[in-house]
Amino acid sequence: xxxxxxxxxxxxxxxxxxxxxxxxxxxxxxxxxxxxxxxxxxxxxxxxxxxxxxxxxxxxxxxxxxxxxxxxxxxxxxxxxxxxxxxxxxxxxxxxxxxxxxxxxxxxxxxxxxxxxxxxxxxxxxxxxxxxxxxxxxxxxxxxxxxxxxxxxxxxxxxxxxxxxxxxxxxxxxxxxxxxxxxxxxxxxxxxxxxxxxxxxxxxxxxxxxxxxxxxxxxxxxxxxxxxxxxxxxxxxxxxxxxxxxxxxxxxxxxxxxxxxxxxxxxxxxxxxxxxxxxxxxxxxxxxxxxxxxxxxxxxxxxxxxxxx
Amino acid sequence: xxxxxxxxxxxxxxxxxxxxxxxxxxxxxxxxxxxxxxxxxxxxxxxxxxxxxxxxxxxxxxxxxxxxxxxxxxxxxxxxxxxxxxxxxxxxxxxxxxxxxxxxxxxxxxxxxxxxxxxxxxxxxxxxxxxxxxxxxxxxxxxxxxxxxxxxxxxxxxxxxxxxxxxxxxxxxxxxxxxxxxxxxxxxxxxxxxxxxxxxxxxxxxxxxxxxxxxxxxxxxxxxxxxxxxxxxxxxxxxxxxxxxxxxxxxxxxxxxxxxxxxxxxxxxxxxxxxxxxxxxxxxxxxxxxxxxxxxxxxxxxxxxxxxxxxxxxxxxxxxxxxxxxxxxxxxxxxxxxxxxxxxxxxxxxxxxxxxxxxx
Lengths: 309, 360
Prior knowledge:
- The complex is a heterodimer of chains A (309) and B (360).
- Chain A is mainly α.
- Chain A has helices at 2-7, 13-23, 28-61, 83-89, 96-127, 133-142, 148-161, 169-172, 181-192, 197-204, 209-220, 222-237, 241-246, 255-264, 273-308.
- Chain A is globular and about 75 Å long.
- In chain A, 41% of the residues are buried.
- Chain B folds into 2 domains: 7-74; 100-359, MetI-like (MetI-like fold), CATH 1.10.3720.10.
- By secondary structure, chain B is mainly α.
- Chain B contains 15 helices and no strands.
- At the A-B interface, helix 2, helix 3, helix 5, helix 6 and helix 7 of A face helix 1, helix 2, helix 4, helix 5 and helix 6 of B.
């Protein structure tokens, strides 16, 4: 490869780069290997910082209760108590089956409504000229700056007057109104990057707006839709402020509230970290699985808005 | 009879409401399109307005109304338990709540201080750390996708899980952190730090926990920004003999400022809304609580809705002020390539080159 670089004409960008490197022959290569080694050492160090807490969570979730506060702690506990997961699942008067169902129910309703309306709104902002469009779009983005606590009390009063406290309504129905402005922003960026000729051709063929949107535009922004689906799933799965304020009955709790309840009641005096870590792990598994399944689209999606903006 | 205690009832009642509202939102959008067209608006404008209707209706119900109502409530002593109706609005008491917060409330300043200090320390540290990590990942490493996937993991973990996990790792007697630190601690004869249970160490503990999360979104976004820097800038700098440090100062940093600006704004807003993690970690009373937690406590534990609304408005003012400050300052440090329009592109490159040369 090196002979090609010395003799070859620098036509492409890579070749220019390599030719530049050849200019300083001695030491350069060694310097490169050393800096490569340092890079990988630092990267591995970073990966360790990321992964060790994960390991600690799983390790603790498999520790016998009597060994929980041993010093020094064993890195691999013996015995490995898989029974902890079963016990954690049934540690509260209501089983985790119900908590998981509650979380899934709220997440799916909120997520599907959110994706549906956010994509419509984004399409409207991206492709149609109407009076006040830019002002409205800026208004929408500025709502991101509004701290959640400002709207908290009046929203609570609103749902209370509707007699819908202690139901799942406050956490799901609002999603029909294009909840995340950031999702709209992201999808708008994607819609705007598509050539306008596609729609014009379809219009000539006699398709109406709904057909164009559903059959042509949506399939083209599929990566962005998948990305916001993942973001929305994670966001709703972890939603804490909503259930904390609106739900009173234990059996209606999502997992995060069950965790909070366990932490401040049964685990208050003598913290049962083996159960709490098992619960935290079980709560994370669906998110981790989703992330690994979708990560390519997901990373592309979350970075699109930030870099081009 | 419907069994009102069963999950079937809970789910089906919300599901039917959800369905009705969904259909209503779509119908309203349709009707608005028809109406606007009747009023003489052209096809494109009426369709566009109809498409954004779901957001606009929600904006009125979930932003404008609470915004106005919360300001009104902040001027009253409204209590969660007292009944409320339009004919019987709570009595106005002027700026009493605001004055009380600023002058008398012993918990107000500590929570403002904790929240602002957390942002002030964790945001620059986080940005620097994330930029460093992103630059490492940008160095033609093998399997960059695998590293990136790994580094994003903490961001996928629920905030509640993160908080409980770090509380456990910070356990003073046998937590992972103190166990790993014990050789160093013994060497200098320092007693085990009590982290979240020592009022002086609460803030550093939150910052360290927050650092773990920076590997996530921030790093991935900055990495995408780095990949967008045209390679020829570095090539010309190399030809001119610029060293790594000069390249970083004169190419990487200026070219990254738009992305850094975006990340700075989002992390600022994030830090000012810190809530979930804080609620899963019990800290000593004298360390103060984050302002969002304090507002929630005032509203729903103390039932002081009026006072909580005033606190929320103070937080809103702080958020707006800081965001405005960052936006205002951006003209001084954010470098947009479009500023140096394509015709002058060569000139800007030459400028970067010459400054790189000057330092080398």
